[in-house]
Structure formats: structure tokens, C-alpha cells
Amino acid sequence: MVIDNHPYKILIVEDNSGDYLLASDYIHDIIINAELSHAKDFKEAQNFLNNKSNTFDVVLLDLSLPDIDKEALFVETQSFCQNLPIIVLTGFSDTDLAIRSLTMGFSDYLIKDHITSTVLYKSIVYSIERFRIFRSLKVLNQRYMDLFHLSPIPMWVYDLETLTFLNVNKAAVKHYGYAKDEFLTMTLKDIRPEEDHEIFMQTILNNKKQAANYFGNTYRHLKKNGELIYVEIRGNVIDFEGRKAEIVLATDITEKLDYIKAVENQNIRLKDIAWTQSHVVRAPLSRLMAIIDLVKNGDLDVAEKEELLGHVLESANEIDDIIRDISEKTKPLI
Amino acid sequence: MSKIDTVCIIDDDPAHVYITKKELKMSGLCETILVYNNGKEAYDRLIDICSNPENLPDLILLDLNMPIWDGWDFLDEFTKIKVEKEILIFIVTSSIDPNDFRRAESYERVSDFIVKPISASKLRVELGKLH
């Protein structure tokens, strides 16, 4: 026979002292270092379980206790199943009830008359191990839920068939202004301006045809206060509680787009100014340079000098106008 | 190339036209000077002269920024017609935009790109390069 040295801490809730002795014998047969506690009724069991200094590995719970009926016992002990594995011990007549206990979160059930050392040992070890795995899955699940709910970027899950919101995170509630309950009564169409509905439905249809698992695009969304924002959507198809759904990350890029637009406008103005510099400014300037050359080297009479002087003044005025015009164009850039 | 007899100035700037004419006269580079104020006017008149090719200019000094047809419009249309005379075309502009340089290079008929101010000595240097 197998011997297990691990010091398991086990609470046995059993009003019948003969049954208790039998159970403890079976346990000690294999788990030689087992540390047993005995509760003779529900009240004692409650005291044991509510005392935080007790760290039981497993509870063996007899269903027929003197101070509580079986149904009530289920209800009262169910909450403890969150913290540790509970194995139900019962007689033949309560088999149905015992089976039902499994759906309520109890780890296992044993028919008293069928208990042997091996059966009990197997149930204890199996329950403890299964509970440990179950708990780590729950932690993992919680971690994923945290990633969703604590994401600083709005996220939601929606039903791919009905387009209704199935879940939204806190950032979405904060950014869009709808309460979570409100969101869950809405569809994706409700956060889009009326005039975008047609193109949106078309996109949804196309996505379905492509049957792609990954979608990404830029859309216009409406906040509850009517503010229109530009949003970059990234999503993945997932299974959400049995429904075909998409999990979506919605990044508001309105400010980014405004910024890009401002930069583009500035570039247009700068190009315009550069064109003016190389074409318009140089026209009167080159004229002045030519006139100076002519005055210096040409054999000019008074009338010709008079004419050239007129052109000099004209060119100077032209340069003045151009510089004023450029300074006017530069104003919005500064 | 043989001696330049007729020079055609296509420019809307009266001061520039005046100066260029004066420079050409002083240098004795040519006998006759034709002046047109924009690309369209130049094109129409030159077409008329085509029936007497000997009267066509030997050299065209073409400005770029002009009303109605600018220098590019003139080039696009004028280079389409077959002319019975070898005509040199110099772009003469106040522009120092590199885009204009590059664009001028794409026209096979354009022999030179001169940045204003123009002078007789400058013109003589440029013509000398072609020999």
C-alpha cells in the first residue's frame, strides 16, 4: 500500500463518532502525518471554517447533521467551496443530492458504505490537486479580465451577428460618456453618425465575406455628448460565452489627425512662400541689377536715364509689396 | 551657328524688354529685334511669319512667368510645329527654382537657361558655348 508523508490538514464534519473513527482510521492508513480536526455539528464546522488561522487542505462533510437540514447545509457551505475543496459524505438514500452537490461547486461525493482507505485517499488527493489547478485558472482568467478592464484605451466586445455590445471596459465608459448598462443596450450603429451607417454596414458585410480574423480601420464615432471623433479600430474575432464576437481596441486619433492636417497646411504655405521667393522676388531684383549694369556701362542720354530711374522706383515698390505679402503669409505660421 | 540676324524677346516686363533691347543694340549682336508680350502673342505672330522662314528669328529669348500663355505653354505649342529654320531658344528668367531648371532640361529645343539680369556680355558668353 502507498504511504503519503505529507502533513495534510483535514477537517471532518461528522456527528456520528463511530463514522468519524472509521474515517480517521482510513485516512491514517495512508496519510500517516495527517492532522485531523473534528466538528460534531454545523455550528462547530462554521467556527472552524471562519477561523482564519485554520488552513485546511480539504473538508470531509457529512450531509446529515443534527443542527441543520441537508438543503440548508448546501446553501450555507457553498460559499466555502471558493476557498477549499469540500468532499461530501453521504448514505445511499442521498445519492441524488450528492450528485447535485457537484454542480454547486463541491469537489466530490463518497457513499459512506463504499469508502475504503484507497478510495478516500484518491478522492482527497484528487480534490486538492483539482482545486489547485482550478484556482490558478481563475487567477489567469482574472488577469485577462484586468487587461481588458484596466486598459487605458477603450475596448469592447460585440456580437458579430446582432452588433450589440456584450462587454465594455472602463476606458470606453469614460471616453464615450455612456454608462456600462447603457452600452449593453446599444449596438455599434449607435456610436456612429447616421450618415456613416450605410458604409459601416457595408464594411461589416465585407469583413464577414473575407472571414478574416483580424480587422483594422479608421471610423468616425459619436460620443454621448454629440462630439465626433476619429477612431482607429483594431479587433479580433473571439468566442464570447458561446457567441461569435469581436474584441475591439478603439484608439481616438482625432488630435493626431488634426495635428497632421495643421502640419500639411503649413507645408502648403511654406511651399507657396518658397515659390514666391524664387520667382516673384527675383523679378524686380534682377531688373534693378540689369539697370545698374546699364547705368555703369551704357552710354545713356538724359531721357534714357530718366526712363531707367522710373523703372528703379517701380521695382523698389514691387519688392516692398512682395515683402509685405510674404510677411502676411507667414503670420499664421508663427 | 551662323551670324544672328533677328532676335525675338518674349517677355511681359517692359523694363526688362527695354534693358534687353538696349543691351542688344549697344553690343551690335543683331540687326532686328522682335518683341512679344506673352507666349500666345508670340506663337500667333511667329506662325504668321513661318510662310517666309527667312524672316523668322535666329534666337528666341523666352521669359517663363507671363500672362495668357506662359513660357511653358509657348514651348509646348511652338515645338510641335515644323520650322524651316534652325531657331535657338534661350529661357531668360528671374526664377532660381531648381524645378524650372529641370523642366527646361526636358525640352530638347531649349539650348540654354539664363537667370536674369541679362546683359550683352552674358549673352555673348552663352552663344560662344554653343560653337
Q: How many structural domains can be distinguished in the coordinates of chain B?
A: 1
Q: What's the CATH class label of the largest domain in chain A?
A: Alpha Beta
Instruction: Provide the CATH architecture of the largest domain in chain A.
Output: 3-Layer(aba) Sandwich
Gap from first CA to last CA of chain A = 90 Å
Shape, principal axes of CA atoms of chain A: rod-shaped
Number of beta strands of chain B: 5
Elements of chain B, N to C (H/E): EHEHEHEHEH
Q: Pairing-aware structural class of the strands and helices of chain A?
A: alpha/beta
Give the name of the CATH architecture of chain B: 3-Layer(aba) Sandwich
Q: Cα-atom Rg of chain A, whole angstroms?
A: 41 Å
Write the CATH homologous superfamily of chain B.
Response regulator
As a percent range, the share of strand residues of chain A is 15-25%
The average pLDDT score of chain A comes to: 88
How many runs of DSSP E, i.e. beta strands of chain A? 10
CATH topology of the largest domain in chain A: Rossmann fold
